[in-house]
Design brief:
- It is a single chain.
- The protein is α/β, with parallel strands linked by helices.
- The chain has six helices and seven strands.
- The protein has a single domain, classed as Rossmann fold (3-Layer(aba) Sandwich), CATH 3.40.50.
- The protein is globular.
- The mean pLDDT is 95.
Length: 173
């Protein structure tokens, strides 16, 4: 799964973030910290924060990334100050969030004006979601509506059909 799904999706998310430098990078649903590690390779001066609701994942991320701040938390309750993040990333975790709208609103809250949110998550057939016990995966329209409700401007989408994912970029005005 790591090579087939996570690594290509994470690389695409970092590419979608753009070429500018970021002072504070947040990974929502950071898992073991691989995306944050890659982000720190691109932006070595950035302060990195990862949040994950699973204690075991957060523990592994903290061991892997001693320079990062790793917190056990849900996307819907980010333990960060308002307007404190330049770049928020989330890959293959949105479908696990209990309240996706609330999570996206939280990301918007912690983003600084001009901050970017790069969201990559599954976009598979409804029967796959049912089989996996997930809520339906959000398509472009659902994401655009949620970003709009949170005050984010959608900068574009990129379908990664071979990976069954959709990448969406939002900017906080």
């Amino acid at each position: 799964m790591q090579r087939f799904l996570f690594e290509p999706v994470q690389a695409a998310a970092l590419d979608a973030a753009g070429t500018q430098s970021f002072d504070v990078v947040l990974d929502v649903g950071c898992g073991t910290g691989k995306l944050l590690a890659s982000a720190l390779q691109r932006w070595p001066r950035a302060h990195a924060t990862g949040v994950d609701p699973a204690f075991g994942m957060a523990t592994r991320a903290a061991a892997t990334l001693p320079s990062a701040v790793i917190v056990v938390a849900q996307a819907e309750h980010l333990p960060l100050p308002d307007a404190s993040v330049d770049l928020a990333l989330s890959t293959i975790s949105l479908h696990h969030w209990h309240d996706r709208d609330r999570g996206i609103a939280e990301v918007a809250r912690v983003l600084r004006p001009g901050g970017r949110f790069v969201l990559a998550d599954l976009l598979l057939a409804p029967w796959v979601a049912r089989l996996a016990g997930d809520e339906p995966y959000w398509d472009e329209g659902a994401r655009e509506r949620a970003f709009d409700r949170a005050g984010l401007v959608v900068g574009g989408h990129r379908a990664m059909r071979s990976r069954g994912t959709l990448l969406t970029v939002g900017v906080k005005p």
